[in-house]
Amino acid sequence: MNLRALQCFVVLAEELNFSRAAERLHIAQPALSQQIRSLEDRLGTQLVDRARRPLMLTEARQILGSLEQMSLAAQEIGVGRRGWLSIGFTRSSMSRVLIQTPERQPSMVLGPPPELVVRASTGPHRRR
What we know:
The protein is mostly helical and 128 residues long. 59% of the residues lie in helices and 3% in strands.
């Protein structure tokens, strides 16, 4: 997916006007329309109701929330507030630390990585 097309959609969603959005993005209005149409084709759904004035977003506007979440997650990973840390330990040696950790780091999730949960639930894979 084209990051530029996503950026164009975000600006269009903020402006709700193709001309103003194109001006903000420093591109021609037809180029903006092409970027939005390309993104719609890629996603297989209409993002903008072009027949209405003023311009309205369709229900697919939920993409904006997902984009904001992805951006925030990427920033948190970049500064080290999110990621994976695997530690091997015995239950008796770490029980006090594990109980206190969520209080100190509410964003920290304790538990096995998702791929281990899936692997354990589906059983071992045999090589042939």
